[in-house]
Amino acid sequence: MIDRDKLVGQITDEVTALVDPRHHVEPFYEWVNRNRKLMAHRTEQPSLLEQLRALADEPLVIDLSDAGHSVPRSRPPGGIDALDRLMAIEAGTAWWASVRLRRDLRETVEDNLRLLVGAATRLEDLDLRDLAYDVHRFHGWAATLTGWQSPPWRPRAACPLCNGTGTLRVMLDKRRATCLACGEVWSEDDGTITLLADYIRELGERDTPVASA
Questions:
Q1: pLDDT tens digits for 120-169?
Q2: Which of 31, 142, 145, 197 is 20 to 30 Å from the Cα of 55, by its Cα?
Q3: Which of these three, 99, 129, 147, is where a domain ends?
């Protein structure tokens, strides 16, 4: 038996993070007329898909010193990874909507993901488990790659599942990782990031940042 409510909740939460902006409220205190009042600083962060698109569209700017100006030439490595995973999410979502659910595709990947959420409660147990697994991968890819201040670390170790070389991407501050070849996701939520860290250390990368994961 599977916990249907847990899987539906997971699908809903992860799709929401993918398609909707996140509103963050940071409380702080401020003195007003000699009274200490609790205030709130509100910010809005783009959805994970919007962040992934922005990263995929970011050009690599090369400074041409002789010409005295800079020109965009190509995407940086992080942008290529982001574009690859963005296309994978779009294709995977379209496959679920059209093949598994036999529904007409909607105009955007966001709308197709919302379609999956609406259908989740009516799926058979096996289909619901498969959908939860795929949505978790979509979310994990986007959450791992959208690191603006600290790009994903690329360990030399091959993927422990598919043996792909140079395909691991580790977001240290988020304690998440993914393989761009097989799509596997490791995270702190389920404890798998620790298993990946142990595996990488066993291969000799003991002085790398993932050692603290």
A1: 999 999 999 999 999 999 999 998 888 644 567 888 899 999 999 989 99
A2: 197
A3: 147
The pTM of the full predicted model, rounded to 2 decimals, is 0.69
Whether 99 and 181 map to the same domain: the answer is no
Region for residue 6 given its phi and psi (left: phi exceeds 0; alpha: psi -120 to 50; beta: otherwise): alpha
User: Please, which residues have CB within 8 angstroms of residue 37's CB and are 6 or more apart in sequence?
Assistant: 29, 30, 31
C-alpha closest to that of 142 among 9, 10, 53: 53
Domain extent at residue 175: 149-204
pLDDT at 72: 47
Q: Does 119 lie in the same domain as 82?
A: yes
The answer to whether residue 171 sits within a structural domain is yes
> Quick one: pLDDT band at residue 207, thresholds 50, 70, 90?
very low
- Give Dmax over CA atoms of the chain in angstroms: 68
